[in-house]
Design goal:
Layout lengths: L1 H16 L3 H13 L1 H4 L5 H16 L5 H27 L8 H6 L4 H13 L3 H20 L1 H29 L4 H28 L7
Length: about 210
């Protein structure tokens, strides 16, 4: 059973450390809102992937390149919106740190952070590509061994992903204790990186003719 579950753990770890919009958003959220509110973002991949999981495993159709291109463009636009929202807060002089005043002034709820994360992940073509080219074949292979193994595969992947996201959040929550000047610089960096990811997705959606698995 372990040889069948090991790929799920490996892919979960890879998905966690692979630089992308979700990881950047998680870091930005941890810096801006702390670990208590941001920890819920660990559930983002699972909640966002449920429809994709169902479509890939039960409808079993190839996704047309046009759909992936459209997701690139829409997802890139949403990421630019998140970057713009973060930049507006930055321009208003929001400071980061463990002060009570900042915690009281933070009106963003954990649910709002979660929904933004779900939208960000759902509008990305990466889950579609992951599920159609990597997860689906692995799950079909494990299912031939035992349906329980398929369930354990999914649990192993998302459990590893959740653990990785949680570690990222806790690390950057500690970074919040640095001086406001340093943390504001880090927030500005995450805003710029988010904007670059958004522009990159839009560019890919406008110029890429087809998608192939990495």
């Amino acid at each position: 059973m372990l040889p069948l579950i090991a790929p799920a753990i490996y892919l979960g770890a890879t998905a966690t450390i692979m630089p992308g919009p979700l990881q950047t958003y998680v870091i930005s959220s941890a810096l801006d809102h702390g670990w208590r509110k941001s920890l819920i973002l660990g559930f983002t991949p699972l909640l966002a992937d449920i429809p994709i999981m169902i479509i890939v495993l039960f409808i079993a159709q190839q996704f047309p390149p046009e759909l992936l291109r459209a997701l690139n463009i829409v997802g890139g636009a949403f990421i630019l919106f998140l970057a713009y929202s973060g930049y507006k807060n930055y321009r208003q002089g929001a400071t980061i740190g463990g002060s009570v005043d900042h915690a009281e002034a933070d009106q963003t709820s954990a649910a709002q952070l979660l929904w933004r994360g779900i939208l960000l992940n759902a509008l990305s073509p990466v889950p579609l590509i992951f599920w159609s080219t990597l997860h689906a074949p692995n799950i079909l292979r494990t299912n031939s061994d035992s349906p329980l193994t398929s369930v354990l595969y999914i649990v192993a992947f998302y459990g590893t992903f959740f653990l990785g996201i949680t570690i990222i959040i806790l690390i950057f929550d500690r970074v919040r204790q640095l001086s406001p000047r340093i943390t504001r610089t880090l927030i500005l960096i995450t805003i710029v990186v988010l904007a670059l990811f958004g522009l990159s997705l839009i560019y890919q959606g406008l110029t890429t003719q087809s998608f192939t698995a990495a």
